[in-house]
Amino acid sequence: MTTLTATATATATAPALAPVTAPALTPATAALVRAPDEVRMPAHRRPGHTIVALSGALDGAAAPALREHLIGVLRHSGRLLILDLREVATADAAGLAVLVGIQRRAAGLGVTVRLAAPGPQVAAQLRLTALGRALTVHSTPDIHADIAV
């Protein structure tokens, strides 16, 4: 009996297969595909509190990166975490679920979460989902003047 290597066996018994590649994106489909890192999330630490200025779309594509980033911020936050939503264009259920989850996690760590200055679409989503009652939302763009623990 002849012993063959796996490669030789595959070559001898089956025709060569062409490598599988992903289809190229057309300009029309490329516009629909968005990398989740397009949501910018710089954190600014101040004595006693941290401000995270979110921007972009808080949606299903961005939710995992947003969750991981905010969990990391919580580890080094003061007693107050302010999520500045002024530059957030849109939010869907997945993005809002991240905010609720972060608030719950923060409460367990003794950190208070405040949402600041949501735009019209985000504010409407918070009202429609009744999350505006579960999350503390400040409508003012001057987050330093309005937010207190």
Description:
- With 149 residues, this protein is of the alpha/beta class.
- Helices cover 40% and strands 22% of the residues.
- A hairpin with a 2-residue loop joins β1 and β2 (49-58).
- α3 packs parallel to α4 (93-108).
- The longest helix is centred in the C-terminal third of the chain and has 16 residues, at 93-108.
Which secondary structure elements does this structure contain, and how are they paired or packed?
Layout: H1 6-13, H2 27-32, E1 43-46, E2 49-58, H3 63-75, E3 80-91, H4 93-108, E4 112-116, H5 120-128, H6 131-134, E5 137-138, H7 143-146
Parallel strand pairs: 2-3, 3-4, 4-5
Antiparallel strand pairs: 1-2
Helix pairs in contact: 3-4
